[in-house]
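Reply to thread "Modeling small-molecule complexes from scratch"

Following up on the discussion above, here's a worked example others can learn from. I took a protein sequence and the SMILES for calcium ion and predicted the complex. Inputs first:
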Amino acid sequence: MKYSKLFTTGILSAAAAVAMMACDAKVETKGDTKYRPTLFKQFGDVVNLPDGLTQDAEGNIFMAAPNLIDKNYAGVVMKRCVKTGKWSVFCAGAISPKTGRGCPMGIEMGPDGNLYYCDNQYFLSKDYASRVMRVVIDPKTKEALRIETVVENIKLANAIRFYDDALLFTDTYFDMTLPNNVGLGGIYRVPLADIKDKSVSLLKKEDYKKDPYLLGVTETIPLPHRGGDNSGADGLCADKDGNLAVGTFGSGRFYTLKRTGKATWSKPELLFDDPAKFPCCDGITYDAKNNRVIIADSEQNAIRTWDIEKKELGLLWSNGDTDGADGLLDQPCEPMIWQGKLVIVNFDMSFPGLINKENDKIHTLSIMDL
Ligand SMILES: [Ca+2]
Ligand SMILES: [Ca+2]
Ligand SMILES: [Ca+2]
């Protein structure tokens, strides 16, 4: 309905007309309307910063929420029951002895039936406080039994995946002083056999070249409009051939690590590097049906695709600044294919240069038809 019509018909009260204008406020959108996201879930303040997503074989969803916008609330792992659609706290994030808080971010169901998550402590401590954690799950009751540390000495543990009985994760910061403020990020691989009954520790970043668990590094040349953000490797996934894709948050540099043997990969090779078209890579996921990577572009409120065969970047959807109440994207950070649709987490923790301008009070997940 046009605003002019509202006013001329005189049927609506002035207050109603103003309310209508507010929700009808023009948010610019791009993409085929069949991909227009709708609201999947709105949380209250107890989930004020949602991030990672995974699911079990039955389709129950697990979502990590570090809840760093309002730290009155603990970082938690939420679970959505596939039978009832109800969300509840699955477990609180294990407390870091260094910061006194648990901050679950990237999360993934492991091949051993346990849940693994990145405990991202970087926003509280830059002193290697982040970890990868294992939530041991009772195979019968499916309840959380305990949480164990499996990898330590990480700067910003971000995305986590599994491939061939090894866990793979990204560390977004190396915090090394390099010319032009170039930022390094790492892709690490730890065999599950190495963390069966114990934890392992990464080497300090000054020794990163000697780290046996490091697969490769990304480089970020910070973008002028992003306030010097040089954050590196963020989203990570493996395709059907075991080739890895990884992208940087600071500039959207998109790489592949090609699988060259049973447990060996090439160094990161650039697939795409044009920040004018793709400036920010947060979470990514592999879409086996279409042999493509689905990408959350946090800066541009966009869901992009990378066609692996054609080596082509595509766009499913993007929109302007919004609070996300109607399901539009509000700093998307993590896509996951679930029951043939795409569930998208909206991080909504604004940094300089992003379309999202406000950490608003509407905490949402979107869902998109694929
Ligand atoms: Ca991420
Ligand atoms: Ca929001
Ligand atoms: Ca917002």
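What I'd highlight from this example: The chain has one domain: 29-369. Residues 27 and 185 are 34 Å apart (CA to CA). Questions welcome below.
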